[in-house]
Amino acid sequence: MDTSYPREDPRAPSSRKADAAAHTALSMGTPGPTPRDHMLWSVFSTMYLNLCCLGFLALVHSVKARDQKMAGNLEAARQYGSKAKCYNILAAMWTLVPPLLLLGLVVTGALHLSKLAKDSAAFFSTKFDEEDYN
């Protein structure tokens, strides 16, 4: 009893031309880079507690992007990752721009007040004679 594999007669003529015509290989090209989920950036944006909870929205979309990437749906993962990136950028802008504007207002206000104080000091240092009161 012969149980060896393959169970073909090695002396039989092979039809390589028929096999080559029956099988076709399709090359789709190299897959693109894996989508980014921006998870770490979203976690830090969430921890900073910025305006309108944009960091939390970024974290939600980052988790969805990671889930879709693990499921193999790369296009949905790219879309969720892109939304997470946009929310992170908005959160960073809402976090950085108002304090910078406030700092600019304080500096310009201080400069303006120092100029007013300088002008008013000259006014109060004026000495009047007794003849001026008559």
Helix/strand/pairing category: mainly alpha
The helix/strand series, from N terminus to C terminus, equals HHHH
* Helix percentage: 55-70%
Tell me, briefly, the overall form.
rod-shaped
Largest sheet geometry: none
Radius of gyration: 37 Å
Which stretches are poorly predicted, pLDDT < 50 over at least 5 residues? Answer: none
Mean of pLDDT: 82
Span between termini: 142 Å
Secondary structure tally: strands? 0
* Beta-strand content: under 5%
Number of helices: 4
Oligomer: single chain
Provide the fold topology.
Elements (H helix, E strand, L loop, with lengths): L15 H7 L16 H9 L6 H18 L2 H51 L10
Helix pairs in contact: 2-3, 2-4, 3-4
Structure notes:
This is Interferon-induced transmembrane protein 5. Residues 1-20 have a biased composition (Basic and acidic residues). A lipid is attached at residues 52-53, 86 (S-palmitoyl cysteine). By secondary structure, this protein is an all-alpha fold. It has a domain at 34-122. It has four helices and no strands. The protein has helices spanning 16-22, 39-47, 54-71, 74-124. Helix 2 (39-47) runs antiparallel to helix 3. The longest helix is centred in the last third of the chain and has 51 residues, at 74-124. The chain starts with 15 loop residues before the first helix and ends in a 10-residue tail after the last helix. The relative contact order is 0.10.
